[in-house]
Design a protein that fits this description.
Length: about 120
Amino acid sequence: MGLADEFTVEMACFVTGDADAKQILSALTEQNAFIKCLEDGVTYRFHHMMKECAERAFAALDGEKQTVYHTRFGEWYEARRRYLHAMTPIGAAATTMRCCGWCRRTRAFCWPLLPPMLC
């Protein structure tokens, strides 16, 4: 979940595929494990040190797993019509046909996020 600045239990379940995400997040929050539930009671955020560790752990994953998680993040944002948020992870996953579909629908441009030959 270190790819997102803020996230919900629902998002964590979708992106990780782990149905126990709620229990894990609750336990980490109760143990003060560098994750905090924000004032709205729904949104979570990593402490910046934990986020950096999560990003490093993600970078150590093989490329196929990274692609799976980037794609899930993009799908999550797309389903909520947050297309600009979706473009970065989908671009990282190099699933450009979907990205370009968003661009046509939203009249946004992919080129700042993707190499020109991909978009």
